[in-house]
């Protein structure tokens, strides 16, 4: 700033094209949409089951596999390692997850759903499917398939850019 004027006031009309319209910026749109959906899920899981979104994500991954290392959950969910670790500990404290020391790496744990965890998961799945239906009911089947394909492409491209 110079002379009390803001940087915005110093911009010339031709500079307007250089500005970023946050509401039209794809990374921002994706983040806002994901956060909105996560909050809806969080409210339902917290109220009904006392679970946070990270806890639910850990449970969902564990329901698809049998006894996997924490690192695999981190890779599948793309969540912060600390969030995954804390979620796993809380789930174990609630009796929903079993944590065993990984024989290949004594510092790591192998996780699996307990019988109680499987029962809770079984109660959540129909609610999750209903919520997904509520979120996508305004989309046609073709639009939904297209959205899934687009998101998969963006995800793959993001992973490729991270690898560079």
Which key features would you list for this structure?
single chain, 164 residues, mainly alpha, Arc Repressor Mutant, subunit A, 3-stranded antiparallel beta sheet, 7 helices, 65% helix
Major β-sheet profile: 3 strands, antiparallel
Helix content: 55-70%
Enumerate the spans where pLDDT stays under 50 for 5 or more consecutive residues: none
The total count of strands amounts to 3
- Return the string of H and E elements: HHHEHHEEHH
Oligomer: single chain
Amino- and carboxy-terminal Cα gap: 37 Å
The CATH class designation of one domain is: Mainly Alpha
> Given the C-alpha coordinates, what overall shape results?
globular
The CATH superfamily name of one domain is: Winged helix-like DNA-binding domain superfamily/Winged helix DNA-binding domain
Structural class: mainly alpha
Q: What is the fold named in CATH at topology level of one domain?
A: Arc Repressor Mutant, subunit A
Contiguous helical run count: 7
Radius of gyration: 21 Å
